[in-house]
Amino acid sequence: MSGSGAVVVRNPRSGDGKRTQIAREMAIERGWEVLDSEGGDHTVELAAETAKRADTVVACGGDGTLNGTLTGVLKAEKLDEVSLGVIPAGTGNDFADNVGIRGVEHAFEVIESNEPRGLDVGMANGRPFLNSCVGGLTADASAKTTPARKRRLGVLAYVLTTMSVSQDFESLKLHVSVGPDRDPAWTGDALMLLIGNGRRFPGERMRQANMEDGQVNVVIIEDAPTLNYLAAGAADKLLRRNATYLTRLKTSHLHVTHEGAPVQFSLDGEMIDETELTVDSQPGAMEFFVGPSYDPNPEEWGKRTTE
Questions:
Q1: Which of 7, 202, 235, 239 would bridge 33 by S-S if both were Cys, CB 3.0 to 4.6 A apart?
Q2: CATH class label, 129-283+295-306
Q3: From residue 234, how far is each of 192, 194, 219 by CA, in Å?
């Protein structure tokens, strides 16, 4: 780290409040500036202002705080000049875990002693996501997903909760195309559309995706009318690696249209409603501080790859 040093954009209400308070004290001890956010757009505004004068912008909170911080740096058009970091203090710290950040103290060690790496950024209809973009989530399922399940399963927790709380889940009628020419890839009724930048999905051996390959991982969970989603073991059956109801794609460009009402998509926990979605991977777009356990080239997976 050089120049004007680090500025922390902190959500003081993240998690149980204890880790975010410890993070504030540790940052102040180091002479770092700490800006407290009220959440939502305020996080974006603080990060945008900070990016115009700091070399390093660090999000302190969960995945939502990190997404807002990245959005603000993008808004300020400073992503190519600013290094990003994360201090995991939220309920969900999925991205921090994927890049090898194991806790508050460890985050400070990593930022102070390591050089940042160029990681991909996912863009969905012009909005960024670091970890995942998930379509088909319901607010009801999100509200009923326990923090413990979120920590253990990440975005899959929402999938499992959706199947357990809804007996009449309305399928998504999707048309999926890939590549710059929008080549048709899949059409049909789906339960969920899972798009990962930093995260892998059902049946995969490792949690972390390749974040330096310029592609997103896509899993389509097809509607299976013969499967009783409320039956014991149904979710495990649906999400096993060789399940016939899973379609996997890997692409740098994805286009999705939905027949009917807008679909709710979650971008790292931030909700948007769209009937049409264009997703692109921006390779190496952000410089991010990663831990020593981060794997720049995790084992590959997937049945189909397209540029």
A1: 7
A2: mainly beta
A3: 15, 19, 18
Q: Which amino acid is at 290?
A: V
Instruction: Tokens for 50, please give them.
Output: 């900070």
| CA neighbor of 306 nearest in space, from 197, 182, 206 | 182
Quote the CA–CA distance of 47 and 72 in Å, as a whole number. 5
Six token digits for residue 75? 């808004």
**163 neighbors 234 (Cβ within 8 angstroms):** yes
Note the CATH number of domain 6-114.
3.40.50.10330
Where, residue-wise, is CATH 3.40.50.10330 in the chain?
A: 6-114
Whether residue 220 contacts residue 250, with contact meaning beta carbons closer than 8 Å, is answered with no
- Using CA atoms, how far residue 82 sits from 41, 159, 194, in Å, is 20, 35, 29
Pick the closest to residue 136 from 294, 242, 45, 266 (CA basis). 266
How confident is the model over 51-105, as pLDDT tens digits?
999 999 999 999 899 999 999 999 999 999 999 999 999 887 889 999 999 999 9
User: Which among 64, 58, 84, 86 has a CA at the least distance from the CA of 13?
Assistant: 64
183 touches 220 (CB < 8 A): no
Query: Which residues on neighbouring strands pair with residue 256, listed in sequence order?
Result: 176, 277
Integer Cα distance of 51 and 179 in angstroms: 32
